[in-house]
Write a structure and sequence with these properties.
By secondary structure, this protein is of the alpha+beta class. Helices cover 34% and strands 23% of the residues. Helix 1 crosses helix 2 and helix 6 packs antiparallel against helix 7 (155-163). Bound molecules: nickel (II) ion (NI).
Length: 270
């Protein structure tokens, strides 16, 4: 099987898993298909979240993309959220980019660290050795109280503890739309159809000046089976990205830290 087919199949599996907890993404997909003349929606990137324990950190996830020809792009630091991130891109820009972040566990309280250490013990090297880990969800029990303890310190920690390994978002490439050629037009269409956008840092994060403009919906709320009860919490969201050319004429392929910082907040409780 060709590398391209392997990549397509992996992203299809990640997409199918994502849709299980982000049903709005399918509605938005249908809305864009009905409103735009593009023959298909192109995915700009996905984002994955994890913890910085060595056996399950960024490299444990990125190895599965690097095996398919992806290369390390840039590093990002979100010190106010205790996060590191890297992006990976394929030499063939038709393939989606991958943005992987990890929580700096050691910066949280002892109580939160103990909960996250317990989670890390449920993640085996065997699990991480197969690319199916990327859409495998959570492999541990979590009480609702422990979720609340994490949420009080780090929305990111709470999200990962509740949902585990899966795409946090997919991203519509506005550059590949035919009719809705500006991000602002996409945002208007979404709002007219009742979708709620993340307004932290403004509806549009970034601009032509930084070669990337992004917006996103607020995450859907879906039920999570905690070990003691089931509660609806924020799951996943859909992002929209418009890329602009660098001085050499090539479209910018990286990310903008100040914008990504605000995009993280799309999983905040409204
Ligand atoms: Ni993103």
């Amino acid at each position: 099987m060709s590398q391209q087919r392997h990549i397509d199949e992996l992203f299809e599996k990640i997409w199918d898993d994502y849709l299980l907890i982000a049903p709005s993404a399918l509605s938005i997909h249908a809305l864009l298909n009905a409103s735009d003349e593009a023959t298909h929606i192109v995915n700009d990137h996905i984002a994955l979240r994890t913890l910085n324990f060595p056996h399950m950190g960024i490299s444990a996830l990125s190895q599965h993309f690097e095996a398919l020809g992806y290369k390390h792009g840039s590093d990002y630091d979100f010190s106010d959220k205790s996060l590191n991130a890297m992006h990976f891109e394929h030499p063939n820009y038709d393939h989606p980019k991958v943005f992987i972040s990890e929580l700096k566990v050691e910066e949280l309280s002892d109580e939160a660290q103990t909960i996250l250490y317990g989670i890390s013990e449920s993640v085996t090297p065997q699990l991480m050795a197969d690319s199916s880990c990327l859409f495998s969800g959570k492999h541990w029990q979590l009480t609702y109280n422990h979720y609340q303890v994490l949420l009080a310190e780090s929305e990111y920690a709470a999200w990962f503890a509740a949902w585990g390994f899966r795409a946090n978002h997919f991203t519509v490439s506005v550059n590949h739309l035919e009719t809705l050629t500006e991000l602002a037009n996409v945002n208007e269409l979404l709002k007219q159809n009742g979708f709620v956008l993340n307004t932290s840092g403004g509806e549009i994060k970034g601009s032509e000046e930084v070669c990337l403009a992004q917006s996103s919906t607020m995450a859907d709320k879906m039920p999570v089976a905690f070990s003691d009860r089931t509660v609806d919490i924020p799951s996943c969201f859909y992002e929209f990205a418009q890329r602009y050319p660098l001085p050499n004429g090539d479209l910018y392929q990286g990310f903008v830290a100040a914008s990504a910082n605000k995009i993280f907040e799309s999983t905040n409780v409204k």
